[in-house]
Amino acid sequence: MKDMTPPQLDQSRVRQSFRRGLQSYHRTASVQADIAARLADLLQAQGAPGQFETALEFGCGTGHLTRQLVQRFEIGSLLLNDLVPEAASALQEFGGAAPVQARFKAGPVESLPLPHGLDLIASASTVQWIPDLPALTARLAARLKPGGWLALSGFGRGQFRELSALGSAAAAPSYLDAAEWRPVLPQCLDLLAVRQAPVVLEFDSALALLRHLRQTGVNGHAQQSWSRRHLRDFEDAYRARFGCDGKLPLTYDPVLLVARRTA
Ligand SMILES: C[S@@+](CC[C@H](N)C(=O)[O-])C[C@H]1O[C@@H](n2cnc3c(N)ncnc32)[C@H](O)[C@@H]1O
Description:
The protein has 263 residues and is of the alpha/beta class. The protein contains 9 helices and 9 strands. A 7-stranded mixed beta sheet has the order 3-2-1-4-5-9-6. Strand 2 (74-82), helix 4 (87-93) and strand 3 (102-106) form a beta-alpha-beta unit.
């Protein structure tokens, strides 16, 4: 396994970046919307029951996964969480993803007081922001009932590979490939399925690509201001190295998994 030392993360910057992008996130984050649907598909395909008494979704954002979960499963009591407190109103605003039986608690999931005996813990496109994943998964597993389900998606090491190759600091701290997940999970979790398949978006210009990153909030670690000169140099370097038929590709590298607590 590659170096797993948790890197330093400025969580207030991540919060600020997602808070600022919250309004535009829902319509811009088409890749994340697809991932949420695929994660719910995977959970069903692994034989999850149609009903869960108690469930937690962390990093719910504007509710892409929330909507998938409540449409496909009957959930008695649903706790929703996000680092950004304003996600609570965004959940309502974007088509009322949160059902009446849902409660929302803001804060980092790593330290949020969590109920015990959960039947399902789910999260899409969020774990890449958690520096210490072994600690988080151990904490989550301890909150699951025996037989309880864990459905997660993050991103692999190919995430935004073009940006890292060009020296950008936009990377989140925990990109893990499919094969790296088993050692990160505690022994009491049975890894039922893990999937990794890249998705490439194309942009006409560096400005459009940067705007996409800003609107989705996924560049929580990146530099915030660009001079005209810097932007031009960046676009030239990007085109020279990755440009294809006049377009600039941007690789997303989603990794999805479903696990179950054994004992
Ligand atoms: C890319 S969005 C994904 C949102 C939603 N799950 C989806 O699939 O569209 C990542 C979300 O994780 C939240 N987040 C980041 N770090 C977090 C943490 N430590 N605890 C809880 N939420 C966190 C961000 O505020 C953001 O809303």
